[in-house]
Structure formats: structure tokens, C-alpha cells
Amino acid sequence: MKVCKFGGSSVANADQIRKVKKIVESDPQRRVVVVSAPGKRHKEDEKITDMLYTCDALSRKGESIKETFGIIRQRFLEIASELQVAGSLKDSLDEIEQKIAAGAGPDYAASRGEYLSALMIAEFLGAQFVDAQEVVRLTDDGRVDESSYPLVTERLRGEGVKVMPGFYGATVNGELKTFSRGGSDISGAIAARGAMAEVYENWTDVSGILMADPRIVDDPKPIKEISYAEIREMASIGANVFHEEAIAPVKSIGVPINVKNTNDPSAPGTFIVLNRDSVKDPIVGVSGKKPYRKVLIEKFMLNRYPDFPGQVLKLLRSKGLSVDFELKGFDTLTLFVAEDQEISWEQLSEELKRELGADDCRVGSEVAMIGVVGEGLTSNSHITGAAMRALEELEIHVEGLNYGGSPITMLIAVPLRKYQEALKALAKTVAQV
Ligand code: ASP
Questions:
Q1: pLDDT for residue 87
Q2: Which of 26-30, 221-225, 402-406 has the lowest mean pLDDT?
Q3: pLDDT given at position 29
Q4: pLDDT, tens digit, for every residue of 275-318?
């Protein structure tokens, strides 16, 4: 059997939901459907989930939610009446509005988008609704609790199609709780693992995961196959591909994930698998993250002070700074610090000298970090050369290079102002290797 998760754009209006029905009915193996809340219908539109969070914020300030909830109500009723399933929704909408206004809290409020979406779609498909609160278990810090799997196995067994809302479940004490944003991917993965699906289909609005960010690179190709490890690295270096936490449930039993396009169901999409042939396609893609500040810390005979790097990182962490990448030399430590807040570098470098005995601390320029990702990276030495040549031709100075730190990702730091140019050049280069 197959578990299919449909994202926000796939359930954004009645037309999209009709496509969902067609997809589900075209394959009898598609027996479990996990849905998001209606997402954006166009660029300026608002997601139902965002509006529900707004309602919660208004209610906590003691303000009326009538207007904002009215838009949510209208949107659901419009879709439901087009699909001719409006009857059951009215009472639920009244109850939800009342509870949010009475201070039910952000998890309850946000989860109702998925809840209503699943109720409506279950009725439209003539399927059984399974409430995620009864089967999906979260830890107190919002991660997947292992006790979900046997519950899911039990409830998703049997004939007929079942529809489950994504994004939420309950803590082991039965309290309703949501995952982090985009968490319906995780719900789909839990369902796929619990139901021992042959494939976990993740339906979106693109024909698979792209080799590079289409907002920067013209017409990047979809990736045919990518390993679980590669997708993790792509996500870590900034690609907005798939919820990171959605990999673990399916990876442990090797269920492949197939990312597909609701608007073009016959396109093969991307398969996320345990192992792939990296001889034919050594690199899967490029991705980038920014801005970072390059900071070089000097300590004579650094090797004699094995605790020094850890102490530096601890100090930075205590100030809310995160160091995503580091390079260690004989007497130097180069850190790439995520620059997502105001930082007094002068004060910090004084502190590093005074508290930790650093000899010097040089605060360098702003950089972007680009990752070239693929399991065939280290067995194809020409890729590094080709990447460096591509940057050299554009006179883009390499501010840092981490090759071999991970067997599947090469990290290249480039000046921030050259980020887009470098990403384009690297995407073009890896598409040719
Ligand atoms: N609706 C939720 C969000 O917007 C969860 C999801 O769609 O995956 O984050």
C-alpha cells in the first residue's frame, strides 16, 4: 500500500482537491491520505495555518477573533460547498471559533486547519477520518514519540481509504500538540512507517526536488534519486526541500519517499531512497546559506589546548550565536558564525582574549556558504577542480573550503555579494559532471 501526503497547495481550493481525488482513485494502493491545511492559492494569499496563529495571538491579547476567523470560515465553507460537503463543517467551525476565543492556545488553534481539511476531504473521498490526536504521539519537545507506530499500525489497518490530518498529534499524556512548521511531512512519514507502506508519496506543487533554488538558478532540473543522507545535507545547507524530521521514521525501515506534483501526476518526481547509484550521477545538487561572518581566532600551539575550540563555541553559544561551520588550523580556528542578529564583534573579541586566552581575534568579511552535495563527491576528484575553476573564471575568491569533513558535501565560502553568481556557476558546473 501507499501513503500519500498532500501539502497546502494541493488542498488550497476545490479544484486542487478534485485533483487529489483523481490521484487517490487512480491507484487502489493509495489507501492512506494525510493532508495539510489549505495553503496559498496565489503569492499574496494567506495560509490558513498563519491565520489560525493570528487568531490565537488576538485571543491572548483579549481582542476579538471574529474578523480573522471569519476569513477562515469563509474559505472552508467556500471549498466545502463547491465540493458539496459543507454540511458537517458548520458545527465544527462554530466550536473551534469558540474554543480559540476562550484561549485554547496556539497548538489547538493551529492544528484546526489540518483537522478541518481532513474532515472535508474524507467526506469528499468517501473515506474514513482518523483523528491524528488519537494515533500520533509527540514528545514534550515536539518530536516523534516511538509509541505512535503501533497506534498507527492498528488504526490504519484494513480495507478502504483513510484520511488523517497532518501537523499534529498528542503528547503521551493525551494533550494536543503540533509539530514545527511544515510538520505534515512528519505525520505522513509516521503513517508510512506505521502502515509499512511500500512507498510514501509526498504530493506538492513541483515535479520533484530541484537541483538548485529556482529563485536563483534558471530552470534547475528535478533530482531523479537522492539518498536519505544527501537530502539531510541539502536541508542542512539551506535547501527548503523536505522537513528534516520527516526522514527518520521512514529511513529506519527503508520506505522510499516519492516527491510528486499534484498538478502533473504523471511526472516521475524525485525518489528519496536508502542507496542510489552515485557512479552515474555523482552530485545531486547545490544549495546555500547566508549570511555568515568569518572570524579567525589565533592561539599559539592550539593543539596543546584541546579544550579551547569547545570553550570558544560555548562562549559564543552563551551569547545566542550559532557556529554552523568551523575550520581548524595549527594555530588558528576559523569560525563561520551565522549573522542573524546584531553582534558587537569588538566586545566579543576582547572577551575571547581575556576569558579564554586567545592571542588574537580577527573579524573578517560577510560570506555565504554553498554546499555541493552528492555521494559521488569524494570518489570523483575532478568535481572539486571543476568547481574551483568555475569560481576562478568569475574571479570569485574562495573564503573557506571544507572538503572531506563530510563524505558527501563540499562547503565553499564565498563573499556574500557574490553569492548568487557563485551558486549559478556551481549549479551549471555540477549539472555537467
Ligand atoms: N499547515 C502547517 C504549516 O503551514 C503544516 C504543514 O503544512 O505541513 O506549517
A1: 75
A2: 402-406
A3: 96
A4: 999 988 999 999 999 999 999 999 999 989 999 999 999 999 99
CB 197 within 8 A of CB 2: yes
Tell me the C-alpha to C-alpha distance, in Å, between residue 387 and each of 288, 371, 382, 398: 14, 11, 9, 11
Mean pLDDT of 197-213: 94
Please work out whether the CB of residue 207 comes within 6 Å of at least one atom of ligand 1: no
CB-ligand 1 contact for 180 (6 Å cutoff): no
Provide mean pLDDT across the span 67-72.
98
Confidence of residue 155 (pLDDT cuts 50, 70, 90): very high
Residue type, 210: L
Query: What are 209's three cell numbers?
Result: 526536488
Atom of ligand 1 nearest to the CA of 47: 4
Which residue ranges make up each domain of the chain?
2-205, 285-431
Q: Does residue 242's CB lie within 6 angstroms of at least one atom of ligand 1? A: no
> Does position 86 have pLDDT exceeding 90, yes or no?
no
d(CA 242, CA 245): 9
Instruction: Find out if CATH 3.40.1160.10 is the number for domain 2-205.
Output: yes
6, 203 Cβ separation under 8 angstroms = yes
Mean pLDDT computed over 119-123:
97
CATH architecture of the domain with range 285-431: 2-Layer Sandwich (3.30)
How many A from CA of 427 to the centre of ligand 1? 29
Please report the pLDDT score of residue 81 as a whole number.
Answer: 95
Instruction: Find the 184 Cα to ligand 1 centroid distance in Å.
Output: 6
